[in-house]
Structure formats: C-alpha cells, structure tokens
Design a protein that fits this description.
- One of its GO terms (cellular component) is membrane.
- Pfam families: Band_7 (PF01145).
- It is found in: Membrane.
- With about 270 residues, the protein is α+β, with helices and mostly antiparallel strands.
- The chain has a domain at about 70-175: Tetrahydropterin Synthase, Chain A (2-Layer Sandwich), CATH 3.30.479.30.
- Helices cover about 50% and strands about 25% of the residues.
- The chain has helices spanning about 1-20, 100-105, 110-130, 135-140, 140-155, 175-225, 230-240, 260-265, and strands at about 25-30, 30-40, 40-45, 50-55, 60-65, 70-80, 85-95, 160-170.
- The strands form 3 sheets. Strands 3-2-5 form a 3-stranded antiparallel β-sheet, covered by helices on one side. A 3-stranded antiparallel β-sheet has the order 6-7-8. The chain has a two-stranded antiparallel sheet with strand order 1-4.
- Helix 3 (about 110-130) crosses helix 5 (about 140-155).
- The longest helix has about 55 residues, at about 175-225.
C-alpha cells in the first residue's frame, strides 16, 4: 500500500515538474491579441500574434478578438419637437490592439456587450434630440455625420476604434408621416404656382417691351411721313411684287410712281 502511494506521489511530482519547468504553449491567432494573467493579476502588456510558452500552474493566456465587428440594432429617440423616432442603424468597430490588456482588466472579455450599447444609444439620443423631425427627414446626413463625430470621440475613451456609423432607417408614427407628406406636397404645389406666376410676369414684361418698341417705331415713321409725304408711295413701290392686280374689264390699272426723273431734270 505504501509503495502504491509512493508511486502515485512520485508520478504527481513528475507531472507537476514537467508542467512547471516545461510549461504549455499558446498560439495567438491573426486578428487577435493575448492577455497574460499570472496569479490572478493582469500583466501590463498586450501579447501580439504569435507563439508563447507559459506555466499553466501560475499563468493563463486569454485570447481576445480585435477584428472589425458589425452591429445592427434598433432604438428609439425623441426629436427636438417631441416626435418619437424609431431608428435602425449599423455600426462597424474594433478594439484598439495595443491596449487590450487594459480593456480586459477593466471590463472583461465581453467588452463589446458591456460598453457599446450605453455609448451608442446615449449618443444617438443626444444628437436626435437636437434635430426636428422634419429636418431628419429632409437632411438625415447632417445628423448622421454628427453621430459619427460624437461616437468616435466617446468610443476612443474606451479604447474602441469606430470604423463607420450609418442610419439605415428613421421612421415615425403613421399620423405624423402622413402630415409630413401632405406638407411636402403643399410646398411643392406652392413652388409650382410661384414659378408659374414668375413665368406669366416675364411674358407680360416681354409684351410691354414689344409694345413699347412698336410704339416707338410708329412714332418714328409718323415723323418721317410728316417730313416727306411721298414716303408712303415709296414704301408701296418697295413692297410691290411686280404683279398686276387681277381685275375684270378692259381697263388697265395705273400705278402712280414718283417722278424722280422729271424732278431731277427740273
């Protein structure tokens, strides 16, 4: 019995010795970082991708994913004019690779589940609260850029790198959306009527200009006729196409022409 116990004790010491002096191996895969914990204390360094030896009796290595992650979620927020908005968004992010040990020490391995919702939801509600519902409908990109800017700053404090943020959809109650649609239609019709009024005004201006030009032309011609009464006959000759009028009977039409030759002889 004593021999059996001795053999078991010896085997246990051999195994412990192998583990203590030989250690175990750990491979940190691509896109990951490692955190070494020795006697329950996190060592202040982040292990990069590669091969590592460690003593399993005193140390453990925790592998954490640092690749880009995508999170699609829904939330609700109130606009500046107290309209409830249902928001669907997508965010892409990753953990900063050089400070993984600090994140693990403060939050744990499930850092994204603990940190992301409170930061993202809080930022979205804050930004949406500054915008009116109509402004979000007509110019969503302004709010999206502001959320992106505010989120980036807030997530950096938690050592999270923001890659992108995008609103997929922002919707309101059916009654409010019908009211907005009616307002948009009314605005479009008002713009069309305004454009039509401008067109009519422009056409009227053109007619006035044409009438003024015609009146000035008549005044000029009238003044010329006062100075030269025979100008009417000259204009008639200039407009004549050389064809005699079609008349019945044997009479030959007579056209009085200016006696320019006789006048010159005189």
């Amino acid at each position: 019995m004593i021999k059996i116990i001795s053999k078991l004790l010896f085997a246990a010491l051999v195994v412990a010795g192998v583990l203590m002096f030989g250690g175990c191996a750990e491979i940190i895969d691509a896109g990951h970082r490692g955190v070494k914990v020795r006697f329950g204390e996190v060592e202040q360094e982040t292990l990069k991708e590669g091969f590592y030896w460690y003593n399993p009796l005193t140390t453990t290595i925790v592998e954490i994913d640092t690749r880009i992650k995508s999170w699609k979620e829904n939330t609700q927020a109130y606009t500046k004019d107290v309209q409830q908005a249902d928001i669907n968004f997508t965010i892409n992010f990753r953990l900063a690779g050089d400070s993984v040990h600090l994140t693990y020490q403060e939050v744990g391995k499930d850092w994204d589940d603990k940190l992301l919702p409170q930061v993202v939801f809080g930022t979205i509600k804050e930004v949406i609260g500054k915008q009116t519902a109509e402004a979000l409908i007509t110019n969503r990109s302004v709010a999206q850029e502001e959320v992106l800017r505010e989120l980036k700053e807030a997530m950096e404090k938690h050592r999270i790198v923001l890659i992108n943020f995008e609103f997929n959809d922002i919707s309101y109650t059916d009654a409010f959306e019908r009211a907005i649609e009616a307002k948009v239609i009314a605005t479009q019709r008002a713009i069309e009527e305004e454009n039509r009024t401008r067109q009519i005004e422009e056409q009227a201006k053109q007619k006035v200009i044409a009438a003024k030009a015609e009146a000035e032309s008549i005044q000029i011609r009238a003044a010329a006729l006062e100075q030269n009464p025979r100008l009417v006959e000259l204009e008639a000759v200039q407009k004549w196409d050389g064809k005699l009028p079609q008349i019945t009977g044997s009479a030959v039409p007579f056209i009085s022409l200016p006696e320019t030759g006789e006048k010159n002889k005189r």
